[in-house]
Specification:
Strand content: under 5%
Structural class: mainly alpha
Strand order of the largest sheet: 1-2
Largest sheet: 2 strands, antiparallel
Number of helices: 7
Order of helices and strands: HHHHHEEHH
Helix content: 40-55%
Shape: elongated
Number of domains: 1
């Protein structure tokens, strides 16, 4: 498909970093993407955006960002041999730290930082954990095509 060859591949490239920008900065890109989907589907202007994405079985830009972050976390935990060694201990699950058996045993542990330097270094982790908490409250209708790991 033309969309996946020329547009989606560029959107998915490095979305983990670029997707952290303020939504106002990404707004023009999302509008352009919506226009492209409308043109490629010959859809009228009043077609809901959700339907445009559903017809192509793809994700909106914020959903694509969330999906890619979750893929990154999954690879860090379950496929460490496929990543650079710097990511081998990037995430720690609670059961590795606690002697007791807490309810949040399988959750990822978020380290607390008390300096601005530490907060700057852990920015990606904070984005990841924010994304994970958003996903717990979001609907689980994500297309299977975009979730292949």
């Amino acid at each position: 498909m033309i969309y996946f060859a020329f547009v989606h591949s560029h959107l998915a490239y490095d979305i983990e970093i670029c997707g952290n920008a303020y939504i106002t900065h990404l707004n023009r890109l999302m509008i352009l993407n919506n226009k492209l989907l409308r043109i490629l589907q010959n859809a009228p202007r009043d077609t809901p955006v959700v339907k445009l994405y559903a017809n192509f079985n793809t994700l909106t830009l914020p959903e694509l960002h969330t999906c890619q972050i979750l893929k990154f976390v999954h690879n860090c935990i379950y496929r460490q041999n496929k990543l650079l060694s710097i990511f081998s201990n990037y995430f720690t699950q609670n059961y590795m730290l606690h002697i007791c058996n807490p309810r949040s045993r399988e959750h990822l542990h978020l380290e607390q930082t008390h300096s601005s330097r530490g907060r700057d270094l852990s920015n990606l982790k904070e984005v990841v954990y924010g994304t994970l908490s958003q996903m717990n409250s979001s609907p689980s209708y994500l297309p299977t095509r975009s979730l292949s790991i």
